[in-house]
Amino acid sequence: MEKLTEAQIEKHLENVEGWDYYDDAIHTTFEFDNFMDCFSVMTRIAMEAEKMEHHPDWHNVYATLEISLSTHDVNGLTEKDFKLAAAIEHIVGDE
Amino acid sequence: MEKLTEAQIEKHLENVEGWDYYDDAIHTTFEFDNFMDCFSVMTRIAMEAEKMEHHPDWHNVYATLEISLSTHDVNGLTEKDFKLAAAIEHIVGDE
């Protein structure tokens, strides 16, 4: 997996609304109605991440879920991060 | 639920080895072999937390799980936090 250039990152960001790019990673925050809804989504994301062999850096407090994605091997972003971000958006959109 | 005094907190800490007390919360970190093992434990903790109606502040990256417990309503610690900490230790000990 190759590290994406700034231009490539800009292009990818157009497809994942609500994600911000800083500190060599992409970040987003979701708010759910309660912990159960939040953790249900986390479970679906966990399965997807495990299948992709690419895992999130995430922080949960009750119904709030903060997610950061990056690829440690390249110390930046790769296609994998945007693939996982798109999968997360799909999962959250389903709820 | 009443806010615990410093003396009560010291006493409770004796029963949950590996937890540190600072910033009005108790904290610990677990390292697992991989993401699947880590998330399996998170799932068991989530169920227990939901049953207790008391939820963790937690951060996961791959096989590392950082947990902080506190009771927002009292802006400090209550029996609930130590009850959840003990449940978490029990779950992790089972793995």
Automatic annotation (TrEMBL), chains A, B:
InterPro entries: PCD_sf (IPR036428), Pterin_deHydtase (IPR001533). It holds the Pfam family Pterin_4a. Its EC number is 4.2.1.96. It comes from the Bacteria. The keyword Lyase applies. It catalyses: (4aS,6R)-4a-hydroxy-L-erythro-5,6,7,8-tetrahydrobiopterin = (6R)-L-erythro-6,7-dihydrobiopterin + H2O. Keywords: Lyase. Belongs to the pterin-4-alpha-carbinolamine dehydratase family. NCBIfam families: PRK00823.1-2, PRK00823.1-3. This is Putative pterin-4-alpha-carbinolamine dehydratase.
